[in-house]
Amino acid sequence: MNHPKHRRGHGAWKVAYADFATAMMALFIVLWMMNASADVKRSISGYFQDPHGYGKSVGAGPANAGEGLRVDSKSMPDLRNMIEQALKEMPEFDKFRNNVKLSVTGEGLRIDLMENEQGLFFVTGSPDPSDYGKRLLNVLATEMTRIPNTIVVEGHTDTAPFRNATPVRGYTNWELSTDRANAARRVLCAGGIPAERIVEVRGFAEHIPLEGVDQQDSRNRRISIVVRLMNQAGAPSDSSTASPNSSSATPKTGR
Fold first, then answer.
1. In Å, what is the CA distance from 239 to each residue of 73, 131, 143, 251?
2. Best label site of 8, 56, 115, 234, fewest CB within 10 Å?
3. pTM beyond 0.70, yes or no
4. Radius of gyration over alpha carbons of the chain, in Å?
5. Are 177 and 155 in contact (CB under 8 A)?
6. Rounded to 5 degrees, what are φ and ψ at 148?
7. Are strands 151-156 and 222-228 parallel, antiparallel or unpaired?
8. Helix crossing, 38-49 with 12-34: angle to 10°?
9. Predicted confidence (pLDDT) per residue in 87-131, tens digit
10. What is the Cα–Cα distance from 38 to 36, expressed in whole angstroms?
């Protein structure tokens, strides 16, 4: 019985096909990278520079559960840059770019969402967030889910009083500042921040105006989100929990 002779190179086409598939995959990755955001490019670059350490630095884990880096005083500016980049990628960024301020303080990263005369992030005189406010808080929540640091939410107002309100009756700036801070907390939690990470909700009414700003300026009506510093053991750093403008806090009459 005659058997066909074994043909050398019978599987060579498989090698060629594998090379073709690999080349196509590389092409698709290059095309994707050309259109990727700066944040994505920075993340990929960081991974290839330090594959083992980078996953920890961005809090990689199940669903970005914040199991990695605990942001301390040295890495807090990196968190600020990451959040600033995320905000710049929002389509409506130009409409509120002058009303969002990020600053690193002794307590941590402070994010101030300052109102304008028309009411930008909250409905004027109301604790209800506007559509802009909800979208912005959701973006902040997405970025802050990557780290395990605890969070404080503050509410502030200007000195304009509510009509017919008195210190013992009616709806005052104390209620408004606290209600807005609590409303912001709800949006952050809905956006993915675990409830246990928000450890304080503060309402200051009009008693801590922005430095160098008239007390009736609309920018005093603001929500401040503070990402608190953590030490190497993962506990909050020993720093004052007062607002950085607390030296300006003096009791005032009015709203």
1. 11, 34, 24, 24
2. 8
3. no
4. 25
5. yes
6. -95, 5
7. antiparallel
8. 130
9. 999 999 999 999 999 999 999 999 999 999 888 999 999 999 999
10. 7
Contacts of 57 (CB under 8 A, 6+ apart): 46, 50, 68, 69, 75
Tokens 């907390």, residue?
A: 185
Distance CA 20, CA 75 (A): 43
Question: For residue 124, what are its two tokens?
Answer: 């004027």
* Tokens read off for 120: 């930008």
Rounded to whole angstroms, what are the CA distances from 97 to 91, 126, 224? 11, 22, 15
As given in the structure block, the two tokens for residue 1 are: 């019985």
Pair of tokens at residue 254: 């009015």
């993915």: which residue's tokens? 192
- How many other CB atoms are found less than 10 A from the CB of residue 24? 10
